[in-house]
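Predicting holo structure, alpha-D-glucopyranose bound.
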Amino acid sequence: MAEFREQRFGLFIHWGLYALAARHEWVKQRERLTDEQYQRYFDHFDPDLFDPDAWADAAAGAGMRYMVLTTKHHDGFCLWPSALTDYSVAGTPYGRDLVGPIVDAFRGRGLGVGFYHSLIDWHHPQFPIDGIHPSWSDDVSNNDRNIEEYQTYLHGQVEELLTRYGRIDTMWFDFSYAKRVVNGRPTPGGKGAADWRSEELASLVRKLQPGILINDRLEIPGDFTTPEQYQPTAPPAQVWEACQTLNGSWGYDRDNLDHKPVDLLVRMLVDTVSKDGNLLLNVGPNGRGAFDPRSLETLRGIGEWTRLHGRSVYGAGPSPFEAPPDCRYTQRGDRLYVHLFAWPYRHLHLPGLAGPDGPRVRYAQFLHDASEIRTLIPDPARDSGHTRLGALPPGTLPLQLPVQRPDVAVPVIELFL
Ligand code: GLC
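Done. Tokens:
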């Protein structure tokens, strides 16, 4: 857990047959494609540009410290040659394991490795058809489906994954929906802990990988919680990891132009760490096995920031001090980091950082270039009237900032307490 919280920033990878459709990883469900219609992606899956070293380089360059890979998504397609199904990469034109080379590439760069694994399976013949299944209709019959056979398959595949690829740091199951209500209607046939045999599955995972962390989507308490595509307004009570997309879709989505700019993503990372969380940021590689140029450019942009500002993020967490408006604080030991989401004019007033005997800050500098930031000691006798500094609430420490905002995604001031 300590290692997980130290890492703070990871790469989510959503990759599978849906990369070929290139219109969201739920395409099979959204367009209600039959197995036969979806088969064309299996028959044409041949990622000739697949280069996991390039992926790992891009992640490491962005400052990411771990990776979570979709071993199987809801469509049921497996990225490794599972002995328990023919519906895996082994049967595609590509024909070879993908999970092993990806794991090796990331581990080779010292990054942590986790597996996302879908509890839902829209291909398995024994998975009972429910309200979010592509084949759902009001008069569907599940008489020929036996969920116990699916449970055996699910547990067996998790066992394969956790015995074939060495140490795995996190198991990221997705998802439970027994009580899910959409538009005021409960999901018919929604599934949860009893359907996955979650307790047993979690025990199996911990037996095979004693140091592993399990997320909270098995409908039983997990080691960390996973807010998806939103930033919590206050720190969640439990250890947490935000998962976020670059453009709203997890799988490669060719015509989607809703890309988040670098500075927004950096603010998301900072906001997350200031609330004691991790950020898992997603890339959906395309059907040839490459990260698209736009995603690469974004990762490079984030990397420019993390290269200079990593100290304010890795191993850092929330601060007990109250941040001024438009700022986020992170703290690590006696270093307090002020992240400026908006650029103030001339002065930044830090509440509570001027004690009765003088400032509680020994030294202040910009993090990106280690240039000194001067603190001002308010002197009510002198700084009254038109200078205004004397009118500050007691305990406020003013910093004197340049008029020009530093040219970085989010400027950071490092305070030595
Ligand atoms: C979801 C979606 C999904 C995505 C995931 C990531 O629940 O079903 O497609 O993989 O969340 O958090």
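Residues 14, 25-26, 174-175, 228, 243, 250 surround alpha-D-glucopyranose (CB under 6 Å).
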